[in-house]
Write a structure and sequence with these properties.
5 helices; mainly alpha; about 60 residues; Protein Yjbj, Chain: A
Length: about 60
């Protein structure tokens, strides 16, 4: 699934993101608005990952949708 589809249906996918990254709040996910870079930044910040590791994790999550 491409990222435009995720972004377009963010309200639907937000719950799945919350399941994957339980430390992210609904407010944080709302602020991300389905923007990939925003989500990567949140994962990086909340979980103390490098940008590359966070990007890989988000890409793997996206591939499973």
């Amino acid at each position: 699934m491409n990222w435009d589809t995720v972004k377009g249906n963010w309200k639907e996918w937000k719950g799945k993101a919350r399941e994957k990254w339980g430390e992210l709040t609904d407010d944080e996910l709302d602020q991300a608005k389905g923007e990939r870079e925003q989500l990567v930044g949140l994962v990086q910040q909340k979980y103390g990952k490098t940008k590359e590791a966070a990007e890989k994790e988000v890409d793997e999550w996206q591939a499973k949708l």
